[in-house]
Amino acid sequence: MQTRGIATRKRFGMRTAAQSAALGLVTAACAASTITASLDPAQGGAKPQATAVNQDAKIMADFNGRVQKYVEEHRRLEATLPPIPTDATPQQIDAHQRALEKLIQRERLKGGKPGDFFDKDTRALFRRHLNVAFSGPDGADAKAEIMDEYPGPVNVVINGRYPDTIPLSTVPPKALQLLPPLPEELEYRFIGDRLILLDVHAHIVIDAIEKVFRR
Questions:
Q1: Taking all residues of the chain, what is their mean pLDDT, rounded to a whole number?
Q2: Mean pLDDT, residues 52-66
Q3: Are 201 and 186 in contact (CB under 8 A)?
């Protein structure tokens, strides 16, 4: 039994401060990038025009919609399991985690596949944001820290269990600020230069983006 997985499971009811703050940052960024008016030379003034759809905001909204749909199903399945006692032992927590893992995997086998959350547009957008997060000297240090925690090549199976032999990576606060905030059931993590979407309660990888930064 892996203590890191259990420790993460114990705190799955908490959301990081960085994730909470990110909601405001992402919303403000999307609003600022929306064009609402243009000059009308004939009238010599400002002429309102239909608000232009911001493509990045739409990609974010579509991603959030897919996440919300998954979380609703996750909660429905988890509600079928006995609740974890407030004084649960590590063994009880691990048993609950693995039971939920099986339920979600069975449901995902009906059609869940790589790219369900990180589709082509989302992968491109996230790579752009992470390129900003990992730029400069601080970014280089953050990448080095992630790679220091990476034991080497590992096969990551979408909808499979997060490898018990790999510690959960550090996620730089700047990366969290630039990515959409997640509900408490999910977290972003890195396995080497791969960004994954982790179901914390079930300890399974539900999607991944390869090579999100240069080593």
A1: 81
A2: 88
A3: no
Domains of the chain by residue range: 3-11+52-209
Question: Considering the entire predicted model, what is its pTM?
Answer: 0.75
Name 95's Cβ contacts closer than 8 Å, sequence gap at least 6: none
SS3 at position 82: coil
Q: Which two three-digit tokens encode residue 22?
A: 């990110």
Question: Which residues make Cβ contacts (< 8 Å) with residue 70, sequence separation at least 6?
Answer: 117, 186, 206
Q: Distance between CA 168 and CA 150 in Å, rounded?
A: 9
Length of the chain: 215
Integer Cα distance of 72 and 70 in angstroms:
5
* Crossing angle between the packed helical segments 55-78 and 120-133, to the nearest 10 degrees: 100
* CATH architecture, domain defined by 3-11+52-209: Roll (3.10)
Q: Please state the rounded mean pLDDT for residues 163-177.
A: 90
Of 206, 204, 179, 208, residue with least CA distance to 192: 208
CA distance 12 to 19: 13
**Alpha-carbon gap, residue 214 to 26, rounded angstroms:** 24
Structure tokens at 84: 């974890």
- How would residue 153 be classed by pLDDT, with cut points 50, 70 and 90? confident
CA atoms of 131 and 59, how far apart (whole Å): 17
End-to-end CA, the chain: 31
Beta bridge partners of 160: 205
